[in-house]
Amino acid sequence: MSNERIAETEAPSTPVLTIDGARATIRLNRPRYLNRLEPEDLGALLELFERIEADASLRVLVLTGTGRAFSAGYDLGAISASPDTAAPSSVPAFEDVVNRLEDLALPTICRINGGVYGGSTDLALACDFRIGTDTAEMFMPAARLGLHYYPGGIRRYVSRLGVDNAKRLFLTAEKIGAAEMLRIGYLTSMVAAGALDAEVDRLAAVLAGNAPAALRGMKRAINEFARGAFDETEARRRHQDSMKGAEIREGMRSFAEKRAPKF
Q: Fewer CB within 10 Å of terminal CB in the chain, N or C?
């Protein structure tokens, strides 16, 4: 029987957090507008990230959308607002929210249940894994809108997808389908719609079962490598600590006893 807990939100359109055992799920929840993100969602997402990271019982985060799309991206009206009507300075920048997701200590999976457009392409890219249906599609319309994209998003595209694919997606504003998303490495895996939940569940269980401290440290090192800011001293310290820690003792013991480890 599931021990699922649902965190209530103030409004039904804000992101919804569900906790089931070691797994947290954030569901973007504005299906009428293809889960378009509004300024008020940004602070809500940051609060959820903090809450999830502070809960030692959680081992993996799944990010997904309600309905037939993952997300239509950030509200264009908020982007183009004049200084007199722009969101107050207390609203975090979209880039800051995506960067925070990228650096979340837990491993993250984006469950792409449909279209992923605009800024949400970067939100998904900030996750460690992206599992999408074979009917998914994506496009980055910045060039068509006259928008020079923020640096963090361009960096992620280049480091994850390579220079040529980043140029293609940013400079042409072409829409591509799931098979091409898989080919260029945007999708980690592609499945039929009916198999999406099973594949997400499988990967989430694998990640939740691995050594959390070792996993957090290696994720941090990989992200630092990708952005050209690798802290070798800290990585070596984490490596040395792991060689004498409780996780490696349990890992070695479980390997010798031919059983699953219990971290």
A: N
